[in-house]
Amino acid sequence: MLIVLTGIDGSGKTTAARSLVAAVRAEGKDALLLSNYAGRRRMSLLSAKLGIRLPSRLADAAETTMRVFNVLVSHTRASRFHGLVVMDRHLHCQLALREAKGLRRGRLLPWLLRTLPAPDVVLHLDVSPETAHQRILARGTDEESVAELAALRNAYRALPEHADMVRIDAGGTPGDVLARLLDAVDFRRRLKV
User: Fold this and answer.
1) pLDDT(52) > 80
2) Largest Cα–Cα separation, the chain
3) Which CATH number, 3.90.1150.10, 2.60.40.1190, 3.40.50.300, 3.40.1190.10, labels domain 2-192?
């Protein structure tokens, strides 16, 4: 079974992905966590350190290249694994970032989404921009404004793919979110039987 987690920065994707994999392994089942980062946080920190702001299209090209590479590697690894595969982020995330920045979807990412093996479920961690902002400030590794997070949340909702995502309320504690994820995964697993 292949699960993809999406959501705005600060929604808890990485924490939820790790917790979900750990919970499945604790039940004695095989689970694999694969991360599909785009390097956006590192590029932002480097840009701030150097005092350089990359043009949106150049930043997107670098992020898209890194995300596509990671997604392709992850799908290759997933195809060789028998058990639950959880992907932390996917191409949907890059499409939402493009939408939030006012950039076109392009042809490559939608084509790859149609061509690559479809996830059994895309779980979208939904959280208010204000809560996400508090989490981002608490971790202290990057900066996003409430307005940027709101724009990204709206961008996810504007994606045609959003209609097929299962919304998970990610505003609670990590334990609450894990329980919701486990319910969603178990529900999907029962449907496949």
Assistant:
1) no
2) 55
3) 3.40.50.300
Angle formed by the axes of helices 146-158 and 91-101, nearest 10°: 120
- Name beta bridge partners: 169: 126
**Is the pTM value of this prediction over 0.85?**
yes
- The answer for residues whose C-beta is within 8 angstroms of residue 5's C-beta and 6 or more apart is 13, 16, 17, 86, 87, 88, 89, 122, 123, 124, 125
Q: What are 120-163's pLDDT values in tens digits?
A: 999 999 999 999 999 999 987 777 899 999 999 999 999 999 99
**Alpha-carbon distances, residue 28 vs 23, 24, 110 (angstroms):** 9, 7, 36
Identify residue 184 by its one-letter amino acid code: A
